[in-house]
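User: Before I run my own analysis I want an independent prediction to cross-check against. Here's the chain; please return only the structure tokens and, at the end, one sentence I can use as a sanity check.
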Amino acid sequence: MKAKSNIDSTGMNTISAFAYRSLSLLARLLPLEVSYLIGETLALLTFPLLRTRKRNLERNLRVVLSQERPSHIEITKLAIMTTLNFGRAVVDAFVIPYVKNKRIDVTFSGMENLGAALGAGKGVILVTAHLGTWELGGAILADMGYRFVTVAGVQFTDGLSPHIKAIKKSKGIDIADNTSILKLYRVLKSGGIVVLHIDGDRYFGGVEVSFFGKKTLMPRGPAALAIRTGAKLLCGFAIRRSRCKIKIIITPEIPVMAENEAELTQRVVQVVQTYIGKYKDQWCMFRPIWGTLP
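Assistant: Structure tokens:
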């Protein structure tokens, strides 16, 4: 199925060209802290105007916090914090070409898990989410010599998307669309890395899972590829500790046994849920995650 874009582009596409030129220049010339401040300000100014995006985010957060019975004020505060992080994430996409020249404090956890998985020679499927600073996380791994292919749909807006994809490709990050199944197979069979967003907006088919206690559909791609290719299955996240401090986390391998796609997808989703639960204000999800079932 083709899900809705992660961000409501109404009103945003009209400023895409200006935003691209401006953000590229700012990312190159300004200190990262200043660029983030500008990104945060623009995100806060546009957030109330993009009502669909605001409504989707607040509904998603309400499910994430359902066990805590949050008030409307608490949801609004969390949505504002998430919006600030999204403003930083937009800046991150434009910082990718200059990441080596920026003052970013990076720590790592679990890189031995990735090393062991690659050492098996069967390929690695690294599942992530739109959590923290996913753009910088990929760029940092690329600068460390890791080469991978990822599936991407619309990047922020239709107007910005081709520019963002070009920036990633310049870093050695290969971009595939949701029809490039054979390409993903070839990468895994050659022992490479495929990075997949479990909350991404482009995929064929979905399986029913429980996510924060509520049923929804999630992509079957990670589980299907792992079962069919024998690739190692892990999760990875780039969490923002502060504006210019991030932590890249690679989780232990999720064993792929003779089981169906739904069971394996549920186990992957459980890992992702754990990290979203820890960093609720960093889950930048502006399309509806629940409500995809009859």
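Sanity check: The two ends are 14 Å apart (CA to CA).
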